[in-house]
Every structure is written in structure tokens, then in C-alpha cells.
Amino acid sequence: EFIRIVSLTFRLFGNMTAGEILLLVAAFLIPWIFALPFYGLELLIGFIQAIIFGGLTLIFLTLAVESHEEEAH
């Protein structure tokens, strides 16, 4: 159970770090006015990642609680 959470954390961290690196490279290569759509895209991706992370956390916690309830009976 713990490995799932660690794996999810590393994937989320990797996605967020890659987005930041992409924005930094784009900021140096193109004028800031052309980089604005990329900032919007990064905000959208961050929002989607937050929904996915919250949903998967809810699923993992539900599975962990259900398995303990079944063992008690």
C-alpha cells in the first residue's frame, strides 16, 4: 500500500518539475508574450493533476479502509 503512494508522489513531482523546466526554457527562448499560452496550459495541467491526485488518494484510502473492515469480521 505504501509503494502506491510513493509511486504516485514521484509521478506527480516529475510532471510538475517537467512543466516548470519547460516554462523556464520557453521563457529564455521566446518573448514573454508568446509564452503566456504555455502558462495557461501549465495551470490547466496543474488543475488536472490535482484532481487526479485527489481521486487516486481517495481510492487508495478507501481500499485500505475496506480491507481492514473485512479482516475485522
TrEMBL record:
InterPro entries: ATP_syn_F0_a_bact/chloroplast, ATP_synth_F0_asu, ATP_synth_F0_asu_AS, F0_ATP_A_sf. GO terms for molecular function: proton-transporting ATP synthase activity, rotational mechanism. It is found in: Membrane. The chain crosses the membrane at residues 21-39, 45-65. GO terms for biological process: proton motive force-driven plasma membrane ATP synthesis. One of its GO terms (cellular component) is plasma membrane. This is F0F1 ATP synthase subunit A.
